[in-house]
Design a protein that fits this description.
The N and C termini lie far apart (58 Å). 55% of the residues lie in helices and 10% in strands. Helix 2 runs antiparallel to helix 4. It has 139 residues and is mainly α. This is phosphatidate cytidylyltransferase.
């Protein structure tokens, strides 16, 4: 299914055409890559490796559902262990950084915190020579 963009690209609404569209360059998760094993080389999509991890977790936890999972859920007050695992796994290993979400979270902060973050980022970028120092701009 990774050959069809409909399955790997987000569906977005186009305001001009008033239609949903699926158009993107598939991420590296959906592009074949070579993996070298001790005796051979295997061509897989990276999402297949993630699928193996998730299905392994589900199949290992399944038989112990009555004992281990129940105790674990009681100890941590979690109602659905598999959903929690999937959410943590996706956030940790699959989903990349999203600058628009960072900006959204920044704008939700109080103005004092926004200014503090701005000044810290400006100092960092100036220190790394990505921004000119204030004296350099005036000259």
């Amino acid at each position: 299914m990774s050959g069809w963009r409909y399955f790997v690209c987000p569906v977005e609404f186009n305001n001009d055409s008033k239609r949903f569209q699926v158009d993107c360059e598939p991420s590296e998760l959906f592009q074949l890559q070579d993996y070298t094993l001790p005796s051979t080389t295997v061509r897989l999509h990276p999402f297949q490796i993630h699928s193996i991890v998730l299905s392994s977790f589900a199949s290992i936890m399944g038989p112990f559902g009555g004992f281990f999972t129940s105790g674990f859920k009681r100890a941590f007050k979690i109602k659905c262990l598999m959903a929690t695992f999937v959410n943590v796994y996706i956030a940790s290993f699959i989903r990349g950084p999203n600058p628009s979400k960072v900006i959204q979270q920044l704008l939700a902060l109080h103005i004092d915190l926004q200014l503090h973050i701005f000044n810290s980022l400006k100092a960092h970028l100036t220190e790394k020579d990505f921004l000119p120092a204030l004296g350099d701009v005036m000259a």
